[in-house]
Amino acid sequence: MPIDAGLARAVQLGRDIGCRVIQVFTKSPQQWRARDIAPEDAEAFRAANAQLMAAPPVAHDSYLINLATSDPDLLERSRQAFLHEMERCHQLGIPVLVTHMGSFANSTEEDGLARLRDSLNHILDRAENLAVSIALETTAGQGNSLGSRLEQFPRILEGVRRQERLALCVDTCHVFAAGYDIRTLDGLNDLLERIGSLVGLDRLRVIHLNDSRRELGSRVDRHEHIGQGQIGEAAFRALLLDERLARVPKIVETPMAKELHAYNLAMLRWLVGLGDRPQMPAIEPRPARARRPKAAAHPTAADATDA
């Protein structure tokens, strides 16, 4: 939910369209700087969530952060910025902060994993008194980004001293684009079994529910509205009805959030027999935006236009 009208207002807007849990950025995801959160705003946000939501909120960190980069200046800035994001989450009572795992551009995957482990140790050593877990998000595998293969996750965990502070966030669009075919019940079961054996289902703390505009294994991260992409309706119905995932917060990050989040939520409810099938509102397409050159150090910033 957008926070431009205020943090507490974001909770109310979520409730208005039927959310039972929300995800927010605590600051602009495409800027390093952020204004401090006033104590009264933090208290209003906490109170609104306690009153209106069924589960604690989730936060996503800035798209500029890269905890695996080979650029020493960017690495230091990313670590400081991420710790600051954890402090903001603690202030707001947000127990889980989702992050992309970063990119190893100009180095090797093993070097990138090592820097990510070092970054997590650096941050968690300084966040001992912050009641916030870090949820590492699966990625589509674009460029040199980490997180597209589940086999990478135990290689991260084994080198982090405070493993109890680490969690997993699965994005359905991302895992599909990375090659995990979740369109069938067998495919979903296979994914969950792999998570169980490699990471532990108890670490799965957040699911991002997004259809995929691109095909299986494309390694391209392009979110689509529920049921209108390559994943399809049956997969989301199976995921929503899976008892193993019943208590895991599920977040919608589909395009045109302000106009169509309510539609996507209604689609998910209809898939499990709650209410009628919604009709896609007639929305005029937004003007095409010029694509900015993608900096090698920030390949995950492309997600900013989709999430």
Mean pLDDT comes to 93
Category from helices, strands and their pairing: alpha/beta
- Please describe the biggest sheet, giving its number of strands, its sense, and whether it closes into a barrel: 7 strands, parallel
* Beginning-to-end CA distance, first to last residue: 10 Å
Please characterize this protein's 3D structure.
With 307 residues, the protein is of the alpha/beta class. It has one domain: Alpha-Beta Barrel (TIM Barrel). It is 37% helix and 11% strand. It has nine helices and nine strands. It has helices spanning 7-16, 39-52, 72-92, 109-126, 152-157, 172-177, 185-198, 233-241, 257-271; strands at residues 23-24, 58-60, 96-99, 133-137, 166-171, 204-209, 211-212, 223-224, 250-252. It has a seven-stranded parallel sheet with strand order 1-2-3-4-5-6-9. Strands 7-8 form a two-stranded antiparallel ribbon. It is globular. Residues 292-307 have low confidence and may be disordered.
Can you give keywords for this protein?
single chain, 307 residues, alpha/beta, TIM Barrel, seven-stranded parallel sheet, two-stranded antiparallel sheet, 9 helices, 37% helix, globular, disordered C terminus
Helix/strand layout:
Elements: H1 7-16, E1 23-24, H2 39-52, E2 58-60, H3 72-92, E3 96-99, H4 109-126, E4 133-137, H5 152-157, E5 166-171, H6 172-177, H7 185-198, E6 204-209, E7 211-212, E8 223-224, H8 233-241, E9 250-252, H9 257-271
Parallel strand pairs: 1-2, 2-3, 3-4, 4-5, 5-6, 6-9
Antiparallel strand pairs: 7-8
Helix pairs in contact: 1-2, 3-4
